[in-house]
């Protein structure tokens, strides 16, 4: 495992000046309450929100991945 951050991303959404200019993101959509959010422009008017996984969430995800293998 590398030392980079691990995130859980929202689906992409579009924000425009003369149209939809608000996007609601529920914390429960990430499956936990994140301490840090990253908002990223992925294309011209398209964005994603990523929740940085806490050490506890990383442990939970790792356990689930091991069970699936």
Topology:
Elements: E1 7-9, E2 13-14, E3 37-43, E4 46-52, H1 55-68
Antiparallel strand pairs: 1-4, 2-4, 3-4
Could you walk me through the main structural features you see in this protein, from its secondary elements to its overall organization?
This protein has 69 residues and is of the alpha+beta class. It has one domain. Helices cover 20% and strands 28% of the residues. It has one helix and four strands; from the N terminus they run E-E-E-E-H. It has one helix at 55-68; strands spanning 7-9, 13-14, 37-43, 46-52. Strands 1, 2, 3 and 4 form a four-stranded antiparallel β-sheet that branches. A hairpin with a 2-residue loop joins strand 3 and strand 4. The chain is elongated and about 45 Å long. The model has no long low-confidence stretch (mean pLDDT 89).
């Amino acid at each position: 495992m590398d030392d980079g951050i691990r995130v859980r991303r929202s689906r992409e959404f579009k924000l425009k000046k003369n149209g939809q200019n608000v996007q609601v993101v529920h914390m429960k959509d990430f499956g936990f309450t994140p301490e840090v959010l990253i908002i990223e422009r992925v294309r011209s008017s398209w964005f994603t929100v990523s929740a940085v996984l806490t050490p506890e969430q990383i442990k939970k995800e790792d356990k689930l991945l091991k069970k699936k293998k």
